[in-house]
Amino acid sequence: MFFVPRRAQHRRAQYRRVCGLACMCSVSAAACQTADRVDSAGSPSTRLVATTRGVPSAGLSPADTDDFGTPLPTDASFASRIVSLNPTATEVLFAIGANARLVGRSVWDEFPPEAVTIPDVGNGIRPNIEAVLQQRPSLVILYATAENRAAAEAFARAGVRTMALRVDRIEQFMTLTMRLGVAVGEVSRARDMVDSVQRTLDRVRAVTRTAKRRSVVWPLWQQPVLAVGGGSYLDELIDIAGGRNVFHELPVPSPPVSIEEIARRDPDMIVASRKTASELDAKRQWQAVRAVRDHRWVTHDPALTGRPSVVLGSAAVSLARLLHPELITALPPLPSTPAAKSATP
Amino acid sequence: MTTGDARDRDAAPSSSGTTAMRLRIDDVVVQYAGSAARALDGVSLVATPGSMTAVVGPNGSGKSTIVRALLRLNPRIRGAIHIGDSSLESFTPRRFATTVAVVPQREESLMPMLVKDYVALGRHAHRSAFGALTAEDTHHIVDGLARTGMGHAVDRRTDQLSGGEWQRVRIARALAQHAPVLVLDEPTAFLDIAHEMAVFELLDTLAREGRTVLLVSHQLNLVARFASHIVLLHRGLVAAAGSAGEVMRGELLERVYDWPLVVTRDAAVGALSMLPLRGSAKRTR
Amino acid sequence: MSTPARRAEIDARLLAALGVCGVVVMLAVAVAIGTVSVPIGEVWSALRGVGDATTVTIVRDLRVPRALLAALVGVGLSVSGGALQGTLRNPLAEPFLLGVSGGAAVGAVIATALGITSPLVVTVAAFVGAAFATALVSVIARVAGGGSDTRLLLMAGVVVGAFANAAILVALADAPPERLRGALWWMMGSAADATWGAVARLAVAIVVLATPLIWWARDIDVLAMGDDAAASLGVDTVRTSRRVFLVASWLAAATVAAAGLVGFVGLVVPNIARAVGARHHRSMLLVSALFGAALMIGADLLARTARAPADLPLGAVTALIGVPFFLLRMRRLAA
To answer: How many CB atoms lie within 10 A of CB A206?
Structure first.
């Protein structure tokens, strides 16, 4: 009938533990959100470069830094052995012919198909430092996210040069390509590729400029419901392809939304891969969205759109063809790369 | 399992309307894990219906251990306990509760409830899972509260009672069980003179009504006046058993309680009583 | 032995009626409010399938299942918490603190980390995890010296809960970012992807598991008095407390499997029910179920409207309710 003091102490300890756990959970959740936002804002130097549309000029001064603020290599002196823990970087290195220097990649680097011949050294986020160092690299390319800062410092202490890069938007892809070009001594090939992609994007934009905008939503994940937001290259691709992302005003790349909100914004079309489309179609909750009820699917090819990389041009072309079938003849043809071959509507 | 005939054998005519039962403890040995000494080292006693049997002894002699052994709450190595003609093991918890009402020494009331609800819990073994209180249930509850003088407190909460009131409510709960055997461990611990006497007189009445009353108590003098059979425990063994005259002996009690005392017969009440002396008397004796 | 001022004690039947009203009102409010505003008048026709297809789907397939799932989670957690508090004789016991929820989370997260997407399989995995955690708690308590010593059970629960957290982090160490995000979102509780199937599954589980607890309610009344007293009143303490503990844990596990980790409900609601006068465990469990349902519908409503269009985790909202409750109780303890 009376609480013993011992028990009260025990319960206080319980309380502290539970509150501590709750705090940890909410703090880590908040941290995840903020980290997303911080990383997607991009580093100051990229924003500077991004103001000029078109090919970044040789105004890339040696003082430029990567997304972590580390000075960039100004020539190819560090390029003898490269470990790339960044999928876009891996693909670009292949595209500009520098793959001979690659001695390691992250397990998530799947493009181009030849990349599997490069030894995989594990995770790209919080990498296994020892596994990477085992390849005796002279340069490590990291994915620039807050969780990799410790890895960058660890590599620096081990005397290995690092480049931390991140691509959320198309301009960042251009920048990354040029920087890699400088770092491996293939500046002209890098510029060629950047020019080619930019040309394709400009052509598509020109064709769709006068067409009626189609409003679209692009769901990325279901639990929780995430959609493409204004901070993502996919949003830019939609714009280039003659569409309007209903969540354009949300600044992060993949904001959490709700099915109700999507229904309220009533997009004309809904972008999804074939697999996702059939999943969503089968769920009763998604029938609240008119575009799902009317089967107004834009079945994109994840092989083209899944990453902000060398296939950006083809991705824009394929999206434009799906959003504006009436303009197919005016649009540039899809390049016949192996990735494009699997692009079926 | 007891048959109807065996029950009758142990029954004695009573005015309380319950079938009386004899409680027999045979050579019980209890030893707790991790303890070198045995809490009970071969204790035997019999409590007969229609009488009050008291277990007395110093702290640690094993008095409460007997009650807990009855509740099957400690490890019994040897010996047997019989209630009526059935062994303790043959009792389901429910049948046990309708046969033996136990008032343990300590009881926590972590979930404060109304006194009437608490006493009603005594009827738990008699009720089905969903049934409401029957007239018989209510009768025993009211009766129990009345006999312990707590009838006025039915709507008070158990955490608002004084120590003595709580004690009496617990006894009322045991009475509500309406069991032929009543076992109480230090039932007068927090009671003043008036209430202590009232409890002893109540137990005396219950015994005369035909119940088997087994009482564990520190109060040697009151026990000597009211109990017909006294068992004196010392370090887990029975030091003496019998009537007050056989147990209330000076040297015996001094040895067992390890304290100087005298035993006199009080002319006013006609019972033997024990008087503890000052500690300095130890040297002179 | 001081007591606070006499609180009003309300008849249990009145409390139940209040609870039912509360649930009905909360359901109506939850269905009407949201990103898309649905006037109350339209709600009824939408339920019947009449009206704009978007509104009908939103009402019938988004809001109603979600509110019902939240309500059922409230019922399950409150009944489970109430039964555990009685059998462990501790008004601060609840499935979260006893490691049950942690065990269920381990099961579900391992299934998710292995790439399993079928909700039924994940549910079963959570159930298995909770059952395993419950058994582990009992074994640890028994090995430590007493199967029914409530303090040992609580401490064993803390140990198992901590171990479950560690196991979850290990299971998620190698997971790709999307799976990690999904698992974490689930771990913080949400009714957002409620389907009618999930509602039906949880309803069945609650009926099957809550009924025996209500059946044993009177035994729990006796258990709450203490081992010695309970033994003398006709209750097999060891067996009964073990039974209640297991069934209550499984009931909580069913809610975890349906909506992830939601804490504090099983702790707060039974205490409120007791405070307003539901004295016996039978009425307390029923009243707790109703209050818990109403509370969870409200919490879920808050979770999806407070920061629309994003969904707040349900567990965070219930934690916000639980913390002030804790503070109040601590003050009363210290006083």
So the answer is: 11
